[in-house]
Design goal:
73 residues, 3 helices, mainly alpha
């Protein structure tokens, strides 16, 4: 298994953990749209943190994140 495969597997595991948390909030009675807004906010904040702490933050185009979101959506 390649390093890229390992990173993809890890990202899926993290995503599943976040989805489990969201499902728990649904069971507690929160609205899905409010949970989704919180998840987007967290993803945007952490993405900015990751870029700022990368070796080459000036080389990361913010449009990459927007395009990735649109592809998944």
């Amino acid at each position: 298994m390649s390093d890229e495969d390992d990173r993809h597997t890890l990202s899926i595991q993290i995503a599943n953990q976040i989805i489990n948390m969201a499902n728990n909030r649904l069971q507690e009675g929160m609205e899905a749209i409010d949970i989704a807004a919180g998840m987007r906010h967290a993803a945007a904040n952490f993405s900015a943190f990751a870029v700022a702490n990368s070796d080459t933050p000036d080389e990361v185009d913010p449009k990459f994140f927007a395009e990735e979101f649109l592809q998944i959506y």
